[in-house]
Amino acid sequence: MEQLGYVRRVCDNMAEVEVRRISGCGGGCSSCGGSCGAPKIVVMMENRINAEAGDIVEIQAKPKNIIKYALIAYMIPFALLVFGIILGVNLFKSMNVKSYEVLGFLVGVAFLILSFIIVRRIDRNIRKRDEVAMEMIRVLE
Predict the structure, then answer these.
(1) Which of helix, strand or coil describes residue 137?
(2) Percent of residues in the chain assigned helix, strand, coil, to nearest 5
(3) Do the beta carbons of residue 20 and residue 38 sit within 8 Å?
(4) Which is it for strands 134-139 and 56-61: parallel, antiparallel or unpaired?
(5) Which of 27, 50, 65, 81 is deepest in the core (most CB within 10 A)?
(6) How far apart are CA 136 and CA 50, in angstroms?
(7) CA-CA distance, 139 to 56, in Å (whole number)?
(8) Model's pTM, two decimal places?
(9) All domains of the chain in start order, with CATH
(10) Among 96, 92, 95, which Cα is nearest to 84's?
(11) Number of C-alpha atoms within 13 angstroms, CB side, residue 44?
(12) Which residue, among 122, 116, 121, 87, has the nearest Cα to 104 in the 3D structure?
């Protein structure tokens, strides 16, 4: 999947690139006439092609990595939240605590916080292995 990006600035061997997100309809406003105006995101990328500020670059996304990172970022917190709530509710219910639902929810929130720590460590490991989801492949302008 290729996209275009605008290099906002370059620092050392990293570039700050503005990329237009693809909307749910595909971003072809002429096809639906909705003029949804998909928002832009700013991404820091390694500047392997010596792009300069103001350049338009072609960015190649690696769908396999994007799906993997999305699953890590969304499913680990969700799964631990649900697991924590179920565990907490069952634990406090078996102890005959009156407000077992509220306490179970708080256990779920604690597991959610734990999941953010886990995701952060996974992110550091991915960065150490130099895995990227997107990379600049050539300068267009």
Answers:
(1) strand
(2) 45, 25, 30
(3) yes
(4) antiparallel
(5) 81
(6) 10
(7) 6
(8) 0.69
(9) 2-62+133-139 (2.40.50), 64-128 (no CATH)
(10) 92
(11) 5
(12) 87
